[in-house]
From TrEMBL:
GO terms for molecular function: pinoresinol reductase activity. It comes from the Eukaryota. Residues 3-308 form the NmrA-like domain. Belongs to the NmrA-type oxidoreductase family. Isoflavone reductase subfamily. The keyword RNA-binding does not apply. This is Pinoresinol-lariciresinol reductase family protein. It comes from Populus alba. The keyword Oxidoreductase applies. Keywords: NADP, Oxidoreductase. One of its GO terms (biological process) is lignan biosynthetic process.
Amino acid sequence: MAKSKVLVVGGTGYIGRRIVRASLDQGHTTYVLQRSEIGLDIEKLHLLLSFKKQGAHLVQGSFSDQQSLVEAVKKVDVVICTISGVHFKSHNILMQLKLVDAIKEAGNVKRFLPSEFGMDPATMEHALAPGRETFDQKMIVRKAIEDAKIPFTYVSANCFAGYFVGGLSQLETLTPPKDKVRLYGDGNVKVVFMDEDDVATYAIKAIDDPRTLNKTLYLRPPENILSQRQLVEIWEKLSGKKLEKISIPGEDFLASMKGMDYVNQAGMGHFYHIFYEGCLTNFEIGEDGEEASDLYPEVKYTRMDEYLKIFL
């Protein structure tokens, strides 16, 4: 079967650049949208040019020029959008509605993967404000996709290791704490941690797979379903050093959010749902979903003990 041609929108971003590399590595003809909005951002330009050297095609386009989006989409079979949906960077989820319109007008796309790659928004109707804005907006985009009858795959990738593993899921650091670690509650709630390169590998694997058509692909490889306490214990074993553990009750965690700015409240709300409620693992995958490591056992995904070794 011929491999689909892929357009990545948001290819210079944190997950986007990995999606581009995975697409090239798996042999797909890969296009990256070069948006005029990058202006004088030379780092983004150099990244785009590095993709070109690796064999990607750069295609001009802008969210302020709808026809340019349509023309870009017409070149490919699959569109993957990875524009940012986190408050501490930029929050552009609803910009995708223009991309949905372009895909609908072009009429040739066999699969669209919108910018999700985190918690499954369909399970987050109860989420705390202001962080629930992320999930509400993703559901608006989903409705537009489905109303337009665009074939899709949603990717629920759970917790990126870069943000959640290196710092042992502490709020203020991305590297392991030296002496003490705060545990959310008893630290025993199960979480799913993913190496970001593996996220991209699984996403690209899914684009031509009929088993993932119009479904959510959940990334839940069994050895990466760990509690925060287990994550800390892995680090202690690797480093040979015991950390003082300070338990933060849920009510204290919620109380600490009061008076914080919008961005911090949004982020802490997500932490609460992950580490106190267990929102990543407290439901079974239904008939509208598939689990990535079941579908693609050939992928040798990164275990978190391997991931943490880089910090030694």
